[in-house]
Write the structure tokens for this entry.
Amino acid sequence: MKKKIILDLDTGVDDTLAISYILGSPEVELIGITSTFGNVLVDQGIRNDLAITDLLGHPEVPVYRGEEHALKADSFTVSEISAFIHGKNGIGDVVIPDSNRHAETDMSAVDFIIDSVKKYGKDLTFVPTGAETNIATALKKAPEIKDEIGNIVMMGGALTVCGNSEPWVEANISQDPEACDILFRSGAPVTMIGLDVTLQTLMTYKDSEQWRQIGTPAAKFLADMVDFYIKAYETTSPHLGGCGLHDPLAAAVAVDPTLVTTLPINMKVETEAPTRGRTIGDNERLNDPKKTAQVAVQVDVDRFLNEFMTRIGNVAAAAK
């Protein structure tokens, strides 16, 4: 049986690339997308998820409405820097047709996560690429799923490098530090794909031009969207020479864990000032022989980039 994947997205540019990567991976099945907040509001994220899966030729993928703000907040507002990097619509301000579909109404994202764990067990991998609010809420509601799920491959955090929201905080963690702390301390199996490795995987205009040459509307959309993202990186991180492939790397590791080398360590998130949001080893569980987290510290860059360009190129070419 194919490994089942749930993508938990705040659908901006790199979330879109994560969707494309999973849809281009024949050895796994995307059983659903759960929407969260971050790069965009939940409503915009749902709109993007539906429109993108339609454009890529996969209208069978259901989308579920997730939590709209952090556990200890009453609302959420998209930051100016997120809008600058991802565009006001989250997908590089590129316009694609709205879907005629809607988010599922029979259950929430949280209930879909729990239901899917009960149904698929160890065959399910959950991939959150924004705030961890949905999975934290699911773990609070049904704590037993920590022992039943196959793996949680999250994009977020930074252990050996600086953050990108504050010097000590990665952006996804900054959205809801308490949620990620709940996840880390829950005992659920977590693979952290943080800035330690994602900033080693870069895409350039030369790469996006390969997709543009494919000629389909989906390929043109992806190329235009990524070019917007690369241009934003020229302002925010000119030293990199391209855009970081954060979320698609997490998606790729969900498909093939051998793409990264990991450090087994029990993690926590600091939730108090002045280092609120820092992802760090948990001293209280330092000597616990059971390590529930694996933190990626090395990545096979060339192999990943080849898989990334090939798989997404195949999806773009097939979407007529």
